[in-house]
Amino acid sequence: MILGLAAAVSTIFMSSCSNNGGKTVSGDADTTAIAAGSIVYFDLDTVLDEYDMANDLRSEVETKVNAIQKDVNRRQKNLEDAVNDFNNKLNKGLMTSAVAAEQQQRLQQQDANFQQFAQQKQAEIMEEQQVMMNQIADAIKTFVEEYNAEKKYSMILSNQAGVPVITGDASLNITDEIIAGLNAKYVKTKNNKAE
Questions:
Q1: pTM score, whole prediction
Q2: DSSP string, 97-114
């Protein structure tokens, strides 16, 4: 799910911005001055792994998905038990052909209802996951835009699995700053909601 999330989120991250004076940035290497107008990057996979909001939302969605899956599995088992019971009675000759035809028709309707239910629940799962990805992507995009309003970089790239930045000067990697800023903003927002 993280790879799908990273792919969905990565599509929103190439921001062109105006030039201005230099700022100090903490990257993966030593603290280095990165001038405004520079092109910098951050590792989206690392951000998604270490962003508290992403982890909290993933946990919430996993809980919902597990509850939905448990309900689907329970209903599927009940249907399988009913089919097995029907087949057992039919094979032992414990019902008339009229009763068997009626029960078979009822089981087919129950199966159709179950299939519809399972598809509906699968759609709910996909919607939950999409909403989560949209929330994370929006939070990161909003933060990066606010961050760059101060830093004035020409471009901020997101790097995922080595694409589009295959290699780069580590001093241009702003991943740690992005994570720290996102988490600080999330904690502040979370604390404001709690009050």
A1: 0.75
A2: HHHHHHHHHHHHHHHHHH
